[in-house]
Amino acid sequence: MPRAVFPTLLLLLLSVFGASQACLPDPASAYRFTGAVCRLTYPAAVVLNEKTTKVIEAAFQHARYPSMGGEKSLLFIGRVIYGLDNLEVHNLSIGRSEFELHPGEGIGIEITNVSAVFKGTIQYGYGSWLVNVKHSIDFEIESQIDLGINPKLYCGDRKVAADTSDCYLNFHKLRLHLQGDKEPNWLKRLFTDFISFTVKMAIKGQICKEINKLANILADFIQETAEHFLTDGNISVNIAVTGPPVITANYIESYHKGLTNYNNTSAVINDSVFHPSQLTENRMLYFWLSDQVLNPLVTAAHKDGRFKLNISGAELTELLKTNLSSVMPECIRKCLLESPSPELRVWSSSVPYLNISTLGVAVLVKASGQLHCGSQGTPAIFFDMDVDLVVTASYTDKKLFLQGNPSKVSVIQPELLSQNQMLLNKTQLEFLREAVEKIGIPKVLSVLEVELTWLLDKQGVNLFDIINPEVLPRDGFVVISMDFGFPHHLLVEFLKKTLQ
Q1: Is 388 in contact with 363 (CB distance < 8 Å)?
Q2: 161-190 per-position pLDDT tens digit
């Protein structure tokens, strides 16, 4: 059977989506404000549940058990006073555990055969008018416990949160031994039972309290991880929850705004086309992204000056050796051959526009280019371009790949600035157009592949064991589906933070 406290590591994976300020009470009413959706299916829950015993171990070992004391009157002995201090966990082992998704309610977790030895110090005294005895000795408590938690996922304060208050412990064994004596004398047996009851209540309260504490630490960890993942420079994404998470027998689904923030301005989404039927349950993990998320991101990148490319020297000369059907203009040939350091500068001159359909992502770009022939002053050639192309994406071996199919390439108002004249010759125009289509577009896409892969690696995507990911464009949105292996790095980071 799968192991232990699944929601903790579920939320670790959902760190890609997490921060929230407010949400609508009904998921259906929140759809039109939703820019991004995450669906985690049951097979993914099984994977995430593989190592969650580590989190339970952390809850037991990290719990701080308070000193306890009390007194009781016993026949013939009189009043017994006791105090227990320095309680610690040793020899912890966690046995079999199970989880279940409860539609519309939450997640049920049953963990059986949790064995642990609690060690500490006990001060006790007993007496009457005839005798008065005081002792301070070490003790240990053998325990065997079943743990149950029924977390409820909800819209918390700036995050998807888990309410773990429905937590209980069943004790199958709880035995107190003084001074390591497994067979205590008749006097010790008189009061070990009621001391054991006190210890039982303390352990139960502290373990459930620690699990709740871990959930709060986890919520902060999620928010920090999500903010880091979706922030680069002046560009960030507001992934506030738009509605409460939905739990069915087969998946858990969360809904997020996906609003781009750039220089204190924010995008708006209020007519999203999302519907749950657009996602299936065949893969472990699905991300649904509206084109209303992607277009503001592209706009922000354009305004931030990120769509610029300079190619110079031998690299430029080698690129322009590509066989083209049209003849290279003499001015360009001279620039390449006679200039010690020719340079081509290209940039987006207006905001690119994305239109997603089943064919791919249609990209409409207006760009400008300058060819410099060795001086930092006036360029030799200046030209504008209109480019329409359909781009498809894939992710293999931890690298992003882009394929482009141009449907329109136009060169507008080319100028020979060094000669103060327009390039009106049709042959020259055709060379520029063909060079843009067959050299420029593939080069730009190859640079974007490298830069976007670097950005994904920077944000930690390469640390995940992503299996057979698919990027599926649809009308107005894109679906990213995948299987994955256990995210060990997230567990390690979380446990480090927990145990600080």
Answers
A1: yes
A2: 778 888 888 888 887 777 755 555 655 665
CA dist 287 → 39, 54, 469, 479, 482 (Å): 7, 28, 11, 6, 9
Encoded tokens for 292: 């209303």
What's the length of the chain?
Answer: 500
Cα separation of 261 and 335, whole Å? Answer: 42
- The token duo for 52 is 């969650």
Cβ atoms of 19 and 223 closer than 8 Å: yes
Q: Is 120 helix (H, G, I), strand (E, B) or coil?
A: strand
Q: How many CB atoms lie within 10 A of CB 401?
A: 15
* Single-letter amino acid, residue 225: T
For residues 181 and 140, is the Cβ–Cβ distance under 8 A? no
Most confident of 68-72, 329-333, 424-428: 329-333
In this prediction, residue 475 has a pLDDT band, given cuts at 50, 70 and 90, of very high
**Residue 75 φ/ψ, nearest 5 degrees:** -60, 135
Instruction: Supply 92's token pair.
Output: 């912890």
Task: Give CA–CA dist 393/119, Å, rounded.
Answer: 58
Render pLDDT for 75-113 as a digit per residue (tens, 0 to 9): 666 677 777 788 888 888 887 778 889 998 888 888 888
DSSP 278-333: GS-SSSSEEEEEEHHHHHHHHHHHHHTT--EEEEEHHHHHHHTTS--SSPPPHHHH
Three-class SS state of 284: coil
Which residues, at least 6 apart from 279, have a Cβ–Cβ distance to it below 8 Å? 37, 39, 253, 286, 288, 479
Q: Which residues contact 164 (CB under 8 A, 6 or more apart)?
A: 7, 149, 151, 208, 211, 212, 215
Q: What is the pLDDT of residue 12?
A: 42
Tens of pLDDT, residue by residue over 216-269, are: 777 677 667 777 888 888 999 988 888 888 999 999 998 889 999 999 899 999
What CA–CA distance (Å, rounded) separates 44 from 61?
28
CA nearest to 340, candidates 305, 314, 309: 314
Token couple for 161: 């949160």
Q: How far is CA 200 from CA 86, 122, 173, in A?
A: 15, 15, 10
Q: Please give the Cα distance from 381 to 432 (Å, whole number).
A: 11
In the predicted structure, residue 478 carries a pLDDT above the cut 60: yes
Q: Are 169 and 125 in contact (CB under 8 A)?
A: no
The amino acid sitting at 109 is: I
Rounded distance between C-alpha atoms, residue 414 and residue 429, angstroms: 8
Residue 475, both tokens? 């009308």
More confident residue, 293 or 25: 293
CB-based contact 88:97 (threshold 8 Å): no
Is the pTM higher than 0.70? The answer reads yes
Quick one: CA dihedral 342, 345, 346, 349, positive or negative? Answer: negative
